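Our working data are protein records whose layout never changes between entries. Instead of coordinates, the fold is spelled out as a row of discrete tokens. Here is such a record, shown just as it appears in the course material:
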Amino acid sequence: METSRISTVLNNLTEYFSSAWTLLSDTTIFLTNNTKIFHHYENHLRELRHRLESNRNNHEVIHEVRKEVAEIRKSLRLQGYNLKLGSLDLKLEGFRNDDAIAQGFKRCVLFLLDDGNIQYITGMSNHIELDAALEARTAATGYHSISQKHYLWFKWRNRVLILSGAASESRDDFDNFRDYVEEYRSSLVRKLSTIC
């Protein structure tokens, strides 16, 4: 509980000192890319942007806009949204081979489970060994039906998670993964936000 309160205070301080433009842009991007409720906020965000553009040197207006955006963000957090993830994204970049390590990529094996969850493992072992380790770990937690397995390379580039297919990943499997990413991008970004 105390950790949650400290986190809230830090979020509020960060938002207070961020520029109104940055907060407004980040909030708009978050609502557009990660929710289905953007239309509820669209007119208000447009009006706030217009006020900022029309009053670039009016510190009182800038302060008011920043306060309104902070209230929107507080409301979104109360609805269960994690706005920190709004600036994260995911990008698929074709296939890579073992020289990807020299470019800073790491190996990952990812299982998409029938129940909608995902399991993944990263490491220095090859993809087949990682697959066996993830199979064992998944089996140890009980029965899980695996709908898709993916052998990937990953790397963070700024706040964008780059994923590429590995030699062990068939083109058809990667196309299936691309379809999955298109449909469940924000959920996948949330689940992979701590991958390293």
Remarks:
- The chain is about 55% helix and 20% strand.
